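re: the backbone from monday

yeah here it is again, tokenized this time
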């Protein structure tokens, strides 16, 4: 099977590395020639170009551009595809993408690997990024089972854990565990950064350790990706932010009123709930 990858950045480059090492022939298309040259120099792809027509022989194509470019990229790609080519994307939001692409190409399967780092671009690509990570596929009633099985098969080779759900279910779930944390974590960093006393700010920066590293990690990631999540999953992000604000208010009230028993109850509940979200 020949695999095409459009958008040779963190996710596209990492997919290319793993799929090449599985023995697939990998063709990469990226926006900048310099990125294509880097991908070739690093041996990430068998061939690379800024021209989508390079992907004409591909049997399966992963679209790994920023979310805002996915639909336009597919429209430009269509004239180069054989009818049997399977298309999938890796966008962090699914409902709007699936709604746009389902009518454009019958063999389309929406996808989202739940893996990433704070880095971006081809230099950030790494082997085994998807190992033991969830990889969500969001078929619709129109998705051909053969296309779904083709994508699921390749995703399993990445040693990712495949999940199937509806695009709307995906977006609502990831609003809680991926998109809300980005906003909350960004708010945390911004609040700390605005400490008025420069001596205290410097001391805090020097004392920050694992707790701050964990809670600030996603707020310190790729800004464009954060904007895309909020923009393309706006309603679900706003719904989860409203709930978050409500819980923050409850915790604040406990502290204001020195209601330590209630605060402890809250923290006991969160202590018990956390392991259900973290699978290590
Ligand atoms: P990234 O590192 O910035 O990579 C995207 C790459 O796409 C860029 O390096 C750029 O390469 C290329 N590109 C941009 N516009 C393009 C276009 N019109 N045509 C072809 N190539 C284009 O971003 P990423 O983190 O890999 O994210 C890519 C996709 O993965 C997004 O849809 C995102 O939602 C999804 N995703 C990200 C994560 C994460 O944590 N980062 C996790 C899961 C899914 P050049 O300009 O250098 O050619």
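seq for it, each position gets an aa:
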């Amino acid at each position: 099977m020949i695999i095409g990858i459009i958008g040779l950045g963190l996710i596209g480059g990492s997919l290319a590395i793993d799929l090449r090492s599985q023995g697939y022939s990998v063709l990469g298309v990226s926006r900048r020639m310099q990125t294509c040259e880097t991908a070739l120099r690093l041996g990430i792809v068998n061939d690379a170009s800024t021209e989508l027509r390079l992907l004409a022989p591909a049997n399966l194509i992963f679209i790994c551009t920023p979310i805002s470019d996915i639909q336009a990229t597919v429209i430009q790609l269509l004239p180069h595809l054989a009818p049997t080519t399977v298309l999938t994307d890796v966008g962090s939001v699914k409902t709007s993408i699936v709604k746009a692409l389902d009518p454009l190409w019958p063999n389309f399967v929406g996808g989202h690997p739940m893996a990433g780092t704070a880095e971006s671009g081809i230099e950030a690509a790494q082997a085994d990024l998807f190992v033991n990570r969830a990889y969500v596929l969001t078929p619709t009633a129109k998705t051909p089972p053969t296309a779904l099985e083709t994508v699921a098969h390749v995703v399993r080779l990445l040693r990712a854990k495949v999940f199937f759900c509806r695009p709307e279910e995906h977006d609502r779930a990831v609003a809680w565990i991926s998109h809300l944390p980005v906003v909350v974590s960004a708010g945390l960093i911004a609040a700390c950064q605005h400490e008025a006393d420069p001596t205290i700010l410097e001391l805090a920066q020097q004392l920050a350790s694992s707790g701050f590293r964990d809670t600030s990690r996603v707020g310190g990631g790729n800004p464009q990706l954060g904007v895309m999540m909020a923009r393309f999953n706006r309603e679900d992000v706003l719904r989860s932010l409203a709930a978050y604000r409500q819980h923050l208010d409850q915790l604040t009230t406990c502290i204001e009123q020195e209601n330590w028993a209630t605060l402890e109850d809250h923290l006991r509940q969160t202590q018990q709930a956390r392991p259900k979200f973290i699978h290590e």
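The chain has a mean pLDDT of 97. The longest strand covers residues 108-113.
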